[in-house]
Design brief:
The complex is a heterodimer of chains A (604) and B (338). Chain A is of the alpha+beta class and 604 residues long. Helices cover 74% and strands 7% of the residues of chain A. Chain A has 16 helices and seven strands. In chain A, the strands form two sheets. Chain A has a five-stranded mixed sheet with strand order 2-4-5-7-6, covered by helices on one side. In chain A, a hairpin with a 2-residue loop joins strand 4 and strand 5 (516-523). Chain B has a domain at 60-191: Cytochrome c-like domain (Cytochrome Bc1 Complex, Chain D, domain 2), CATH 1.10.760. Chain B is built from 13 helices and two strands, in the order αααααααααβααβαα. Chain B has a two-stranded antiparallel ribbon. Chain B starts with a helix and ends in a 10-residue tail after the last helix. Classes of the chains: A alpha+beta (604), B mainly alpha (338). At the A-B interface, helix 3, helix 4, helix 5 and helix 8 of A face helix 1 and strand 1 of B.
Chain lengths: 604, 338
């Protein structure tokens, strides 16, 4: 079931990462746009616009003299300044989230607004100055006229009338609209001023003051109206509307974009939900599998102890059987060894029979000769005993007593030699065939063992090969001598069997190096195929026809050499003979104590 | 910043005025024979001049620190002058010299305006080149004639003072900085307003706070049109006006200096030539000499100049004297520690 999950893990993970990436991207762009800023800006703009309108109203109030002081025109200044700065800051924050072109347009309109506000402020300042002067002069003008008329020296009647007309015209002009022409009024005032010379000095000053203030009214009125027009023309409100419109358009676009984004978001959410559902199904499925396996595990656990016991019993049974088998095998092996020996002995028997037959043959002929000789002797003895003198002579002529005297001992000694020879052959055989279990480690002269073996095999070797000895100096070697003899015999027999038609040569070499002795049995026989070379030490492997050997010879040799902690190697090529090399340690590692007990034979 | 406060200051009396009007009416109708009320009648809310608010509500700790800085000569390059050297709060907020001596004894270009009620001015300096007290402070410290220092230098010096370090750390998060130094001084200056002048008490309904002659002077002040410019809470300080609007002041005076160009130096506009901020007339009796060029040594002279060049009118000695009498009712001591 984990494989099931794993199989799906990579595509699932990939899908999840993609969806989450998309969600984050959308979320990021959504966060980027702060609708709050827009509404804040709109609120600010509305506030500014209201303040601006109130400002204008206060200007007009000041113009018509409804305001007693100019604090009302000054009070909005700090607030307007602060609001304008806030609009700038808020809008520039908004502008950072917009395309460059929109941001530039917005910045430009904000700059225009701030500039308009500044210009308007300056114009209003100027308006205040001129308005103050205009109001003063306008208020004073009737007083000036009255002062002139009711002064200490009365004015001439036409002049007084001219002064009052001028006063009326100036007042009318002042109260008139912006379109009122100043020129006729100014011309009238000029005319009035021209009559200054006709007045006494005391009234000249009064006329000057009147004319100056009348001119001031006209001058300041046109300045005030000009300023009011300019103030009205300053596009403060319009630039606020511009900003608002721009922001609204952007907001509309943004919210359209947000609609699209929310659609994407919804699609993404649906995809995520589907993925989630799929994962849930997968998990549920795997959960079921896990549950099933868990139950099985639990069940298995319950029987585990029992099964372990059973298994342990089985194992110990098997172990016992194995041990028995090993013992049996060991027995078998030693039997095999024995039987191989016996087989070797069987092989020897043929040669041996001939060997024994030979002395037996001449023993037999000697004995028949001796029987003849004993018969003749008995005749001779009979004749002498009967006293027949002639007969012994007769007999003596037929029986050469001297010859008998000579030949009988010869025959006897010959026979004795033959019997001894038979006895020696039998003794050799007996030595060779003795059982392995009787053996124990001893210090032995390998050359002697080799010679012994070679002499035993001499009948087999003689017809097929010459034996060449190339012995080096060997120390006494700690070994099981009869087993080593067996190895040597197997190797020599092997060599003999490798010989072809032509008479061959078997070379036995020996030597000693590095605490090891080596022994080589080389032949110039048929050699060994490379494919066979690796198998020559395998048990039951043989190239000979069935019945001529169990195929255990070399395998046994291998085993024996292993028991001696030695090595056996073979070098051979087809047609070039074979060379078996035996390497044995001089001293056996593990049998020291026994060797020491053997005492005298041990080398220093 | 003083706008809303000023509005509040106006609104309060207005509300109170309504209540008092109602109360007074009832009192007059019900007890016609009763003695006239000691505290007079309703506040005079329709007057072009309005009383100074009782407080601009500054942080006392910052104002105290600002007071210390205001009197600290280390703000000038050579430690010769402090703010208070020219703006002595105990002396009408001025040094009473025609022109003031800067850190090296050089004279300033114009007469020192008073620091008292400067917080109620809509602009600072004669030509209005600073919109706020803070801007004014920043300019004076680096002015090569006045204090001749630099802000990094001032900040460094004050930072070296353990006392200042502690004091700033106590009231400002970021310790000794230019902004905080300026803010502290401005805070102090906002405590240097002078409420409760006798005229203000009169405006608040205390009829007997000024004499009949002074009241007559106020009437003349209004009738002659002085009030066209000198109006509002600060009796001026809320507009610009050309000096010599009815007669050529500078032609008469002669010897034009660059400073005479007034607001033209700020805006570069021809219309602003010879235009100055209308100075406040509060504490005017204590801040002689008068005008940007200190050309009038006494109030009487100043009134004469105004009549001639600004009003373009001739007034009797009595009227002028009455106006001077009125002007003297505008004096008061600052509420805060000077």
């Amino acid at each position: 079931m984990s494989a099931f999950i794993l199989r799906h893990a990579r595509p699932l993970l990939l899908a999840l990462v993609l969806l989450l990436g998309g969600a984050l991207f959308l979320l990021d762009s959504a966060i980027d746009y702060d609708a709050g800023r827009y509404f804040e800006s709109v609120a600010l703009l509305r506030q500014v616009k209201q303040l601006d309108a109130q400002w204008e109203v206060d200007v007009l109030k000041a113009r018509i003299g409804m305001n007693h002081n100019y604090d009302a025109l000054v009070d909005p200044l700090p607030e307007l300044g602060a609001l304008s700065e806030r609009v700038g800051a808020t809008v520039s924050t908004l502008a950072r989230q917009m395309p460059a072109a929109d941001a530039a347009a917005l910045s430009a309109s904000v700059a225009a607004f701030q500039d308009a506000l500044q210009r308007k402020g300056a114009l209003i300042e100027s308006f205040k100055s001129h308005n103050a002067v205009m109001h003063n002069s306008h208020a004073f003008l009737p007083i000036a006229a009255r002062d002139l008329a009711t002064g200490r020296a009365p004015l001439p009647a036409p002049l007084e009338a001219a002064v009052y007309r001028a006063l009326l015209d100036v007042l009318l002009y002042q109260h008139g609209g912006a379109g009122e022409a100043a020129q006729p009024v100014l011309a009238q005032l000029d005319a009035l001023a021209a009559r200054r010379g006709t007045l006494p000095a005391a009234q000249q000053e009064g006329l000057d003051v009147f004319v100056a203030h009348a001119r001031a009214v006209v001058r300041e009125k046109s300045a005030v109206y000009g300023l009011l027009n300019e103030i009205a023309a300053v596009p403060a409100a319009r630039s606020i509307d511009d900003i608002a419109a721009l922001l609204a358009a952007l907001e509309q676009r943004q919210s359209a974009g947000m609609g699209q984004e929310s659609m994407y978001m919804a699609a993404l959410s649906a995809a995520l939900a589907l993925l989630l559902g799929y994962v849930i199904v997968l998990l549920m499925r795997s959960h079921a599998v896990i549950g099933r396996v868990n139950r099985q595990l639990q069940l298995a656990n319950e029987h585990l102890e029992q099964r372990v016991q059973q298994r342990t019993a089985e194992l110990s049974g098997a172990n016992l059987r194995l041990r028995e088998e090993i013992a049996e095998r060991k027995l078998l092996q030693s039997r095999l060894l024995q039987s191989e020996k016996l087989a070797s002995v069987g092989q020897l028997a043929a040669g041996m029979a001939h060997e024994i037959n030979n002395p037996l043959a001449y023993l037999s002929s000697n004995f028949s000769m001796l029987e003849t000789y004993v018969g003749q002797l008995f005749q001779l003895l009979d004749a002498q005993g009967a006293g027949d003198a002639a007969r012994p002579r007769q007999l003596g002529a037929a029986i050469d007593a001297d010859f008998l005297r000579e030949d009988i001992p010869l025959l006897l000694s010959e026979s004795r030699g033959g019997m001894e020879r038979v006895a020696r052959i039998v003794q050799n055989l007996k030595d060779f065939a003795r059982a392995g279990c009787e053996q124990h480690w001893e210090w032995a002269d390998l050359h002697q063992g080799v010679e012994n073996t070679l002499s035993l095999l001499a009948p087999r070797l003689q017809p097929v090969a010459d034996v060449v000895r190339e012995y080096g100096a060997l120390p006494a070697v700690q070994c099981l001598p009869r087993q080593i003899n067996q190895v040597v015999m197997n190797l020599v027999l092997n060599a003999a069997q490798a010989m072809g038609e032509a008479r061959g040569r078997i070379t036995v070499r020996s030597g000693c190096a590095d605490g090891q002795v080596w022994l080589e049995v080389a032949d110039d026989g048929c050699g060994i195929e490379p494919g066979v070379l690796t198998r020559v030490f395998d048990p039951f492997f043989t190239t000979r026809p069935i019945g001529e050997g169990a195929g255990l010879g070399l395998s046994l040799a291998y085993g024996i050499v292993q028991d001696h902690h030695g090595q056996i190697e073979v070098q051979s090529a087809p047609g070039q003979g074979a060379c078996f090399r035996l390497l044995l340690p001089v001293r056996q590692p593990g049998v020291e104590a026994v060797a020491e007990e053997e005492g005298a034979a041990a080398p220093a | 910043m003083n706008g809303p406060l000023r509005k509040a200051a106006q609104a309060a009396p207005r509300a109170r005025a309504a209540a008092l009007t109602a109360a007074a009416t009832i009192a007059v109708i019900a007890a016609g024979l009763a003695a006239p009320p000691v505290l007079g009648g309703p506040a005079l809310s329709d007057e072009p001049i309005q009383p100074v608010p009782l407080s601009l509500h500054q942080d006392p700790a910052r104002a105290a620190l600002g007071r210390q800085l205001f009197h600290d000569a280390r703000l000038s390059a050579n430690g010769a002058v402090s703010c208070a050297s020219c703006h002595n709060p105990g002396q009408g907020g001025v040094d009473r010299r025609p022109l003031s001596a800067g850190f090296r004894g050089q004279l300033t270009a114009v007469n020192t305006p008073t620091v008292l009620n400067a917080a109620l001015n809509f602009r600072q300096f004669w030509n209005g080149r600073a919109a706020t007290l803070e801007a004014q402070i920043e300019q004076v410290v680096v002015n090569p004639v006045e204090m001749g220092s630099s802000w990094p230098e001032v900040v460094r010096r004050l930072q070296a003072d353990a006392g200042y370090q502690r004091a700033f750390a106590a009231v400002y998060r970021d310790g000794v900085t230019q902004a905080n130094i300026v803010n502290a001084i401005a805070s102090y200056e906002r405590t240097l307003i002078t409420p409760n002048a006798r005229f203000d008490r009169y405006l608040r309904g205390e009829e007997q706070a000024i004499t009949a002659a002074e009241r007559a002077g106020y009437l003349k002040f209004k009738q002659y049109g002085c009030v066209a410019c000198h109006q509002g809470v600060n009796v001026g300080g809320n507009m610009f006006q050309k000096l010599g609007v009815m007669n050529d002041y500078f032609a008469a005076r002669g010897k034009l200096t660059p400073a005479d160009q007034g607001r033209f130096l700020v805006t570069g506009s021809k219309d602003d030539l010879y235009v100055f901020k209308v100075p406040s007339l509060r504490n005017v009796a204590a801040s002689a000499p008068y005008f940007h060029d200190a050309s009038a040594a006494t109030l009487e002279q100043a009134v004469d100049v105004m009549f001639k060049y600004q009003l373009g009118r001739v007034a009797s000695k009595e009227d002028k004297a009455a106006i001077v009498l009125f002007l003297k009712t505008l004096s008061a001591e600052p509420e805060g520690q000077p």
